[in-house]
Amino acid sequence: MPLGEEKNGTCDRSIYVNNPHLDSMTDDILYHFNLGTSTHDLAAMFGDVKFVCVGGSPWRMKSFTEYIAKELGLSDPNAEYPNICAGTDRYAMYKIGPVLSVSHGMGIPSISIMLHELIKLLYHARCTDVTVVRIGTSGGIGLKPGTVVITKQSVDSVFEPRLEQIILGKTVVRCTELDGELAEELLQCGKELAEFETVIGNTMCTLDFYEGQARLDGAFCSYTEEDKQSYLAEAYAAGVRNIEMESSVFAAMCKLSNLRAAVVCVTLLDRQKGDQLTSSHDVLNNYQQRPQALVGHYIKKKLNASKKS
Amino acid sequence: MPLGEEKNGTCDRSIYVNNPHLDSMTDDILYHFNLGTSTHDLAAMFGDVKFVCVGGSPWRMKSFTEYIAKELGLSDPNAEYPNICAGTDRYAMYKIGPVLSVSHGMGIPSISIMLHELIKLLYHARCTDVTVVRIGTSGGIGLKPGTVVITKQSVDSVFEPRLEQIILGKTVVRCTELDGELAEELLQCGKELAEFETVIGNTMCTLDFYEGQARLDGAFCSYTEEDKQSYLAEAYAAGVRNIEMESSVFAAMCKLSNLRAAVVCVTLLDRQKGDQLTSSHDVLNNYQQRPQALVGHYIKKKLNASKKS
């Protein structure tokens, strides 16, 4: 299937599911969330959601919820934020006001299961005008560690903005385009915060952390330091500024379901200078708070603007 | 690279890493385990490991450790089994006697990160003669739900026993062969237990739970029930008895590192009859204990045999 053949309408920004079979199902079990349409009133639970932030680590997504509650003035010193998916350990989910926070594990398959169920959840809850941001960690190329990269295009291992998915044994190519306007708005938020460097660049999405990202420190390695450096230099020349493992399917699925989407990842190291994460726990922890600070600022700004209008 | 070009010796069954760069590293940080060679005495912590059981869910791997402790007569009513990877939420790891239990999340990328670090851990700890078993859940084809499938071959979406990995932007094909003798021994354990049906069959490994497994209930679906049924029938004709999301890279990486490996998954439903997991929590929970009962029986038998000899 050529790029962009799967189209979405753009008029009212409601959530699209592209599946005629769903209408004939009397019940829809969102198995990996431990939620379902016959067991939960999804519209009552999630109907007001306007922002969804997703990230690999369950702990980070809980801490994002605590952070955003404080930022939005919704926090209560005695408040507990219960994990909405408490009956399963596949994903963790938290909600405060219009902001939903969901973990997705590591890699394309793990985030893809979560997104199928998240998109159905938002659809069943009849949410409209939802913005989804992945806040994550990554390896940087040619950037000072701690720099935040907002993804322009999510590209594959040969630097093309596409995702190959296999459906019924056949390869389907999907477009990994993200919302350019949203990326610019987020860059502006980075400038306003002025607490760390923020750039827009391409993000390479791989299926593997070690060999797939040209690391020299995995259990297997069949290439030299020189091979690694020349691959990373090629990536840099193609506009790649960071490497992670979820952005392509995130971009493709959000596009197919008419969700405004962005990817905001901090770089934990410069891959041209090394492979191992040798920075201290505190330094890495500080870096990981940067995407959430940036996205928190964006959400606050948007909510304040909508109150005024 | 053709199938099987990456060879291992087979004489002393020590763990192989195939990476010349590791020798020149003064320290090796196993980042996603929160362990490292300079911060932990890996040989003292893990040198006696003979069996490693891996599975998607951290809860299930903790419960496996409690179960195996009881089975091996190593349990203490007051014992706590601390999570060895407590400093991170990427994976959970538990150990009791010679049995290590590690979670791997969902999908090929997630288990691949874990296996790179596990193989290096076993190598640094100088372990020998290690057997690794994935105990998991899957969708069955033409089997009564609750049947346990021991994988003969892990096959891809066109039913070939191979894994395509992308290294420096180029496709490398790896062999997904598992240990045939170990599979037969495990089948024998199933017969001895006689508590549930156990079969040997091929396992299809996919990158996606919904469209990649021909489900009709994802957020997107572009095919008919008839298309789905004919794809599953083709899979069945090729010897596929269950579908999951980790076995191919598990088989390939264990083979490359000279680890005796098996995949033992219970089928939670018959995919020819449906897509959603509608069985009760209790029934699904009972099913999930079957692979651990089978592998527990195998480990007990092996340890008893080695005591006698």
TrEMBL record, chains A, B:
Residues covered by the Nucleoside phosphorylase domain: 50-299
Top enzyme class: transferase
GO molecular function, one term: uridine phosphorylase activity
Coiled-coil regions, chain positions: none
SUPFAM superfamilies reported for this sequence: Purine and uridine phosphorylases
Protein's UniProt keywords contain Glycosyltransferase: yes
Residues noted as binding substrate in the record, renumbered to the chain: 213, 215
Pathway(s) this gene product operates in, as recorded in its UniProt entry: Pyrimidine metabolism; UMP biosynthesis via salvage pathway; uracil from uridine (phosphorylase route): step 1/1
Residues that span the membrane, as ranges: none
Domain of life: Eukaryota
A biological-process GO annotation: nucleotide catabolic process
Keywords associated with the record: Glycosyltransferase, Transferase
EC identifiers of the protein: 2.4.2.3
Cited InterPro entries: Nucleoside_phosphorylase_CS, Nucleoside_phosphorylase_d, Nucleoside_phosphorylase_sf, Uridine_phosphorylase_euk
GO terms under cellular component: cytosol
Binding site for phosphate: 90, 134-137
Pfam families assigned to the protein according to its UniProt record, in alphabetical order: PNP_UDP_1
Substrates-to-products reaction catalysed: uridine + phosphate = alpha-D-ribose 1-phosphate + uracil
Protein purpose: Catalyzes the reversible phosphorylytic cleavage of uridine to uracil and ribose-1-phosphate which can then be utilized as carbon and energy sources or in the rescue of pyrimidine bases for nucleotide synthesis. Shows broad substrate specificity and can also accept deoxyuridine and other analogous compounds.
Family, per entry: Belongs to the PNP/UDP phosphorylase family.
Listed name of the protein: Uridine phosphorylase
Organism, scientific name: Culter alburnus
